[in-house]
Amino acid sequence: MKPLSRTVSPSITMSLDREARELIASGRDVINLTAGQVDLPMPEAGKAAVRLALDENRTGYIPATGSADIKEAVRNRMGWTEGEILISAGAKPLLSAAAACLCGPGDDVLLPAPCYTSYPEMIRLAGANPICVFGDPENRFTVSRTALEQAATNRTKAILFNNPVNPTGTVYAKDELAEIVDFCKTHDLYLIADEVYGTFVYDAPFVSLYDFPDARERLILVNSASKSFAMAGLRLGWAVAPEPVASAIAGYLSHAVGCPCSLSERAAKAVLEGDEASSLSLRDVFRKRRGTLFSLLKDIPGIRTERSDGAFYLWADVREIEPDDAAFCRALLSAESVALAPGSAFLLPGYVRIAYTQPEPVLAEAAARLKRFAAQYGKHAG
Ligand code: PMP
Ligand code: GLU
Questions:
Q1: Are residues 70 and 113 in the same domain?
Q2: Structural domain total, the chain
Q3: Quick one: 258 and 283 in the same domain?
Q4: Which among 96, 161, 166, 228 is the best mutation to test ligand 1's pocket, defined by most ligand atoms within 8 Å of the CB?
Q5: What is the b/e burial string over 280-307, where b = at least 16 CB atoms within 10 angstroms of the residue's CB?
C-alpha cells in the first residue's frame, strides 16, 4: 500500500474519557474527571424541539451554515449585531474551518498555552505552524503582551485565543483582552476566538471579544451549545465572522461537514430563544462544585492549585509528588481509580486537569482518594 500522507494524533481528552468509560463498564469503581462535558440534562425546551422536529419529518438536509431562523436566534441571544452568522456541528468544525481558510503552509498561528488539546492539530491540518506562547504561571497562566510580541514575526497570520481557558479555568479581564485586541491590530492578525465556556464564569461578568467593536473586522468568534446548554453530543455550534472570511468558512463547511444536524438545530434554536435561566442554573451548580472541590484540594500536601475563575476545570501542579504528569495520572488511576487528564495533553507537563463534571459527593470522594494517593505515593517504591 502507498504510505499515508498524514497522520493525525487522536484527541487525548476524548481517548482518556473513552478509556475511563471502558473501565467503568468493566465493573471498576472509576471516578472519571477527564473529559470536560456537562453531566446535567439539556433544557426541556430543547428536548421538546427535537421530538417535534422528528414528528415533522425534519430529517433532510438543511442549509450548510444553518437555517435563517436559528441564525436570528443566535444573533439575538449573543447580541451579535454585525458580521455573518455561521452554524455547524459544534465549535470544532467552525474552528477547524477558520484555521483552514485563514492559514496555510508557511503561516504561523500563535497559540497561548497551556491550551485545548485539539488546537495544535487543527492548525497543522490547515498546513500552518502552531507557535506556543506560554502563559505566566504567576499570573493565572495568562499570556502577556510582551510574550506575544516576542513570538510575532512576519509569518504570523493569526492567534487562536480561548477564553475562559481550557485547561486552566482562567478568565481574561477586560484590560487583558484589550491588550490582545491591540496586539492583533498592531500586527494585522486574525483573531480566532473560542468562547465555548463563556457562560461558565463565576466571579465577575464575562467580557466577550465581541465587546470590542474595533476587533470585529478581524474576529472569528466561535461558541456552541455543547457546554452552555449541556448538548455536547448533539453537535451544534455557532460563529460570527466578517466578510469575506465568513463566505470562505461557509464554502469549506459545505464541502467538509455538509450541514448541521437538522434536529440539533431545532433544539439549539429553542434553547437560544428560551430564557437565560437554564444556563444560569448550570453556572450556579458549577460555581458551587468549584468551591467545594477547591476547598478539599487546597491543603493536600504536594498538590498546588488555584480556585480558577471559569470553565469547569481546576489546574493543579503535581510536580512535588511526581514530575511526570502522565505517570502521575496512570498511578492515580491504578491505585485509587480516579481518572484525570495530564497537563502534557494541553502542552504543559507537570500539571493535571481536574474536570468538576460530577456531582459534589463524587467530587468529595475523588478528593479523599487524591489525598490518600498524595500521602502514599512513592512510599512503597522507596
Ligand atoms: N473548544 C474548547 C476550548 C473545548 O474545551 C471544547 C471541548 N468540547 C471545544 C472547543 C469543542 O466544542 P464542541 O463540542 O462545540 O465542538
Ligand atoms: N472539551 C472537552 C475536554 O477538553 C471534551 C473533549 C474534547 O472535545 O476534546 O475534555
A1: yes
A2: 2
A3: no
A4: 166
A5: eebbebbbebbebbbebbeebebbbbbe
pLDDT digit string, tens, across residues 138-176 = 999 999 999 999 999 999 999 999 999 999 999 999 999
CA–centroid distance, residue 9 to ligand 2 (Å) = 14
Q: Which of 215, 242, 273 is the last residue of a domain?
A: 273
100 and 178 inside one domain = yes
Q: Is the CB of 118 under 6 A from ligand 2?
A: yes
Confidence of residue 382 (pLDDT cuts 50, 70, 90): very low
In a shared domain, residues 263 and 289:
no
Confidence of residue 279 (pLDDT cuts 50, 70, 90): confident
Asked, as a colleague might, if the bond just before 120 is cis with ω within 30 of 0, I would say: no
72 and 180 share a domain?
yes
**What is the mean pLDDT of the segment spanning 101-115?**
98
Mean pLDDT, residues 247-259 taken together: 98
Three cell numbers written together for 330: 496512570
> Is 337 near ligand 2, meaning CB less than 6 Å away?
no
Domain that holds residue 302: 4-32+277-381
* Alpha carbon distance 378, 169 (integer Å): 29
Q: Please tell me if the CB atom of residue 264 comes closer than 6 angstroms to any atom of ligand 2.
A: no
Residue 351 Cα to ligand 2 midpoint, Å, equals 17
Q: Specify the CATH number for the domain of residue 126.
A: 3.40.640.10
- Please report the pLDDT score of residue 306 as a whole number: 92
Ligand 2 atom at shortest distance from the alpha carbon of 232: 5
Checking if the pLDDT of 291 tops 60, the result is yes
User: What end-to-end distance do the CA atoms of the chain give, in Å?
Assistant: 50
Q: Whose CA is nearest to atom 2 of ligand 2?
A: 36
- Per-residue pLDDT, averaged over 111-132, amounts to 97
Which of the 8 DSSP states describes residue 139? G
Q: Confirm or reject: Cβ of 37 under 6 Å from ligand 2.
A: yes
Q: CATH number for the domain including 25?
A: 3.90.1150.10
Query: Is residue 166 in contact with ligand 1, taking CB distance under 6 Å?
Result: yes
pLDDT value of residue 380: 53
The answer to whether residue 50 sits within a structural domain is no
